[in-house]
Amino acid sequence: MNTGTLGPPYKRVWAQFYKAALFESDANKVSDRIAEAETALVTRARELFHAVGDNIEEEQAVDDAMYALHALRSALKCRPNAKNACRELAA
Questions:
Q1: 58, 62, 86, 60: which is closest to 73 by C-alpha?
Q2: Which pTM value belongs to this model?
């Protein structure tokens, strides 16, 4: 039966780091929060790779979160105070 949850809370630590990165209000800390979330996501992805059973929902959630963090990092590079970073991304 699918309950729509991602497993026990101790296995969802990555989600806390992910949310912290998404909702960080201090622009000087966002990059650090993204890096922390990416580390937690990679760790969980490795655990899921070696785990037995059907973990497809959480695997997809981890992939989606990594994609979103990559998009956030790219968007931050395109801020007006980021020197020519947006041009480099477009090339």
A1: 86
A2: 0.76
Using CA of residue 27, residue 88, residue 65, residue 42, what is the dihedral sign? negative
For tokens 């981890």, the residue is 62
Instruction: Write the CA distances from 27 to 22, 53, 80, 87, integer angstroms.
Output: 11, 40, 13, 21
> pLDDT in tens for each of the 91 residues of the chain?
344 455 565 568 999 999 999 999 998 999 999 999 999 999 999 999 999 988 999 999 999 999 999 999 999 888 766 555 455 555 4
